[in-house]
Amino acid sequence: MNQDRPRTAMSRRRLLAATAAGLGAATVGLAFGTGTATAASLKNGLWCNPAQGYFPSGGHFGADRGGVPHAGQDITGPAGTAIYAARGGTVHAAGENVLSGRTGYGIVLAHGSGSYTYYGHLNALHVSTGESVGAGAWIGDMGSTGNSTGPHLHFEVHSGGLGAITDPVPFMRNRGVDLGGGWPTLNPGASGETVKVIQRLLTSRGADLVIDGDFGTVTTDAVAAFQSDQGLVADGQVGPKTWPKLVRTIDSDSSPGDAVKAAQTALNKHSAGLVVDGDFGSVTRAAVETFQSVNQLVVDGECGPKTWEVLTA
Question: How confident is the model over 214-266, as pLDDT tens digits?
């Protein structure tokens, strides 16, 4: 088994003060069941999709597996598809048969407060026990090790200590992530690298923002102004209707600027290790092509809508 880490050769519009204040007051939900976070506030930018693929028949949470309920959600794809950390945390365990009752190579990530995610049937690991990882870090490759009938990711969420499993599909959806694929949803109050991507894309369209990863009132106003300009509901939420209009298709012929920086920021969230300089040169193009390859996309070195969708998921 290869344990080596992979290498990668608006205008502004004034809104009603009451609306802006209401949107900006959204609070960031905590990771698991602490406090009184609403479903909306849980879409806080701290979660991302662990793998691209589709749900196979019988691979859902609770499915009968010889009298034993299935403990997670299966996501099927070709062997070698990249597996990403669903949230930042520490590698609790990485190796073979790391969780009782699960076979094959897997990874357990600890996210604090007794919360964990598990990634099973991998054919390669890119992290080691004790290592800290960010949300979206490339932690392994999809495989079929252990008791498996074909390449897939077996993904679990444990929300009250190891063994306290919950259905990962609604859990992740409540946090703005559709398992398997699709644009993410982030609400005002969110934070993190994907918020920086949003800010850079807005800046590329004329907004005047500090790139700080804080989805506060200023960023909320900029999102709502952009949405209004595009004929969308100006709710300040960046989701499946806003993302396709916000992203820009960029490639090696693109002029240096914030749109390229947005792509570089998103690639770095997935372990590309790029200098965020806004230059779509050969190194950035190679990182795009690597990302496309390990996510089963057309490898053309161009950041178009489909590549952006996977980059931000």
Answer: 999 999 999 999 999 999 999 999 999 999 999 999 999 999 999 999 999 99
Q: Are 263 and 304 in contact (CB under 8 A)?
A: no
CA pair distance 76, 153, nearest whole angstrom: 6
| Segments in the chain below pLDDT 70 | 1-40
What are φ and ψ of residue 262, in 5° steps?
-60, -45
Domain extents in the chain? 64-173
Q: What is the pLDDT of residue 62?
A: 87
Strands (E), 34-114: 64-65, 68-69, 73-76, 82-84, 89-96, 105-112
Q: Which residue has the tokens 């007051």?
A: 25
Alpha helices (H) along the chain: 17-24, 168-173, 193-204, 217-229, 243-246, 258-269, 282-294, 305-312
Domain over 64-173 is classified CATH 2.40.50.100: no
Distance, in Å, from the CA atom of 195 to the CA atom of 198, rounded to the nearest integer, reads: 5
Say whether pTM exceeds 0.70: yes
Give buried/exposed letters for 291-313 (b at 16+ CB in 10 A, else e). bbebbbbeeebbbbeebbbbbbb
